[in-house]
Amino acid sequence: MSDTPEDLRHEIRQWLADNAPGDWRDQSTHEGFVASQRAWFAQLVAAGYAVPHWPGEWPGGGRSLAEQKIIYEELARADTPRLLLSFVSTYHAAATLMECASKEQAAHYLPRILKGETWCQGFSEPGAGSDLAAIRTKAVRRGDVYVVSGQKIWSTMAQYADMCLLLVRTSSEGAKQAGMTYLLMDMTLPGVSVRPIHQIQGDEEFAEIFLDEVEIPVSQRVGEEGAGWAVAQATLASERGLTLMELSYRMRGAMTRLVSEIAGTDRTEDRGVLRDLGALATRVDAVCALADRFLQKRMEDEEKIGDASVVKLAYARCLRAWAEMGVTLSGLSGQLHAPITYGDLNSGNWMADFMNSYAWTIAGGSDEVQRNIIAERMLGMPREPRGWKLEAGQ
Amino acid sequence: MSTMRRELEDSALKAFPHWEVVREREQARATVAELGWFMAGVPEDMGGLGLSRAELGVIFAQLGRALVPGGLVAQFLAVEALAGAQAFAGRDELLESAMAGEPLTASLAIGREGLEAVPDADLASHVLVRGVQEIALVALEGATIEPTPAWDTSRALFSVKPAEGGARLVLASGAEAAALNARLDELACLALAGDALGGASAVLAISIDYLGTRRQFDRPLAMFQALKHRAADLKAAIDTASALYDASSDARGTAMGAMKAHCCEVYKQVAEEAVQFHGGIGLTVEYPVHLFLKRAFLNRELGGSAGFWNERAGRALLEA
């Protein structure tokens, strides 16, 4: 363990110089993606950089905010792959297990996450995206199992997952939120089938999960029956802040990709291009500063309703502008199809990154939902009238 | 920082509770002097309060929020120049009277030669003349001072031509002039960016109030999602720019200029939408939104335009 933040920076930079996988984009095609992600995750776990946000009793955990920032800054600077495959495991699943699950559940699953067990999240449904409380996947208790039937969608990396954070409906009485229950589901159980979703950029990052009379032991429930909504909130809150900070830093690090589109061309003296680049870089800096400030507020318990929405909206819109500038600068060559790489915002192909940027303006609460939260909760603008019904002929 | 920040904000709210309280530039200058703000950035051993740039930034945002009129940014620049000057006879007395609000002025047109866009030159005893090789405080006695009326009537701007052979106090020359010029550019950008963010927050708040009051189609305008979403985008833009502003108080050179350009673009965006939010009455002189709109556009040009700073920022990135 390092003594000062700058010692840590030196230490991780040295480690990355020796260990960062330089060729990850070539390996992160369909066939190699899972293996290269697992290998990189295992390396980070061994070195103590995989879960700096976990509590101190875990290897590499217990890092201060300043230390976490340094780790993310250096991972971004070294252009390392983002941990897409283990993202749900180390953030959503870990937070749920640490904050809401029983001691036995946490003790069973947390070490397995560090060994590479992959989790996915079964929240959204075809009829319940932003309106999460509208889920219909049904669980009926029969003895010491819940029998679950229904369909989940937009589950990131579900096709590779070992376990699933599953939100189900155990009752249709009362408020929509009141009848929800939270389960930990083994993806190998009979009745579970997964179908990847082919996305516009050629990736299959999301999948659908079909559940047909799946029997999940009651011991796999987190919290009480009917308390699933509150647990789900804890799950969703877990990644806010840190992730957006990491992503913002990665976007700042990836400004070098825009620069390399310009360097060595006659556009180095194109004042319009220079101005666009300068304005965008400043906007990226602003998003980083916003993410820093948000995290600081969280640490000091000063977060207000809507703050997280502002960060997500600002990041998502800036990412879109960033990728779009790359598409524009890359010209016709940027329109040529390239082998598909899982790289999130930084795959090496501008059009793929641009199309992927839509995920951030839609997933985890669309921009429109964030705007409603900001307008109603931060600016005090009134809600629209409730109880609206579609009339015949509309 | 946060206690001092709160104290500064509280005293600003007392002195300038609302945009229309102080509309007269000499009164505004006297109030700011009384609050001690002109001495805020001067080191304590020179008779100032020794506050940091971050704390000065709070002051500038408050001046912008209340649309405080006059050549206050120019006065802050002159004070900074005097405090950073090499010693000369009478420097301390001049600094002391400048901190007390005795008008000095300076051009706010960064990146250009000459003395255009000089606020309050008609009131000032001296103008700061910033050359590449030399920075001097030149007496305005006998100078040609032409008013250049701007759309933003909260600032009185002049074009100044000092008298030939007039009194000239050299504050810095050579490498020292370069360093002082950089400091002054940074301070001007910080001041204008703060003014922009204070103004943007204020005009958004005025607009939200209005949208909540004005009814159309049997409901308040504030209930329409088309308007709520635009207001939310503006709020997000202001928060983002304000995070950058807070993180940039000690930024240097181009980074500070690019920050200023960003904040001023956000002000322009918010002020433009504010006129639209107000509908027809946004076009009337009785409603204050046009004052913010005009100030936003002037702030964008003062201290170097977005084009000027963004081009530099882009070039710096290419050369990094």
From TrEMBL, chain A:
Span of domain Acyl-CoA oxidase/dehydrogenase middle: 120-213
InterPro entries: Acyl-CoA_Oxase/DH_mid-dom, Acyl-CoA_Oxase/DH_mid-dom_sf, AcylCo_DH-like_C, AcylCo_DH/oxidase_C, AcylCoA_DH/ox_N, AcylCoA_DH/ox_N_sf, AcylCoA_DH/oxidase_NM_dom_sf, Mycobact_Acyl-CoA_DH
Residues of the Acyl-CoA dehydrogenase/oxidase C-terminal domain: 226-379
One Pfam family this sequence matches: Acyl-CoA_dh_N
Residue ranges of coiled coil: none
GO molecular function, one term: oxidoreductase activity, acting on the CH-CH group of donors
Cofactor field: FAD
Acyl-CoA dehydrogenase/oxidase N-terminal domain span: 4-117
Gene3D superfamilies assigned to the protein according to its UniProt record, in alphabetical order: Acyl-CoA dehydrogenase/oxidase, N-terminal domain, Butyryl-CoA Dehydrogenase, subunit A, domain 2, Butyryl-CoA Dehydrogenase, subunit A, domain 3
GO cellular component terms listed in the entry, alphabetical order: plasma membrane
Range of residues in the leader sequence: none
Keywords noted in UniProt: FAD, Flavoprotein, Oxidoreductase
Family classification: Belongs to the acyl-CoA dehydrogenase family.
Protein name: Acyl-CoA dehydrogenase family protein
Automatic annotation (TrEMBL), chain B:
Protein family according to the UniProt entry: Belongs to the acyl-CoA dehydrogenase family.
This protein's name: Acyl-CoA dehydrogenase family protein
Record PANTHER family: ACYL-COA DEHYDROGENASE, ACYL-COA DEHYDROGENASE FADE28
Domain Acyl-CoA dehydrogenase/oxidase N-terminal per the UniProt entry, residue ranges: 16-74
Ranges where the Acyl-CoA dehydrogenase/oxidase C-terminal domain occurs: 190-307
Swiss-Prot/TrEMBL cofactor(s): FAD
Entries under Gene3D superfamilies matching the protein: Acyl-CoA dehydrogenase/oxidase, N-terminal domain (1.10.540.10), Butyryl-CoA Dehydrogenase, subunit A, domain 3 (1.20.140.10)
InterPro entries: AcylCo_DH-like_C, AcylCo_DH/oxidase_C, AcylCoA_DH/ox_N, AcylCoA_DH/ox_N_sf, AcylCoA_DH/oxidase_NM_dom_sf
Pfam families assigned to the protein according to its UniProt record, in alphabetical order: Acyl-CoA_dh_1 (PF00441), Acyl-CoA_dh_N (PF02771)
Molecular-function GO term, any one: acyl-CoA dehydrogenase activity
Keyword annotations of the record: FAD, Flavoprotein, Oxidoreductase
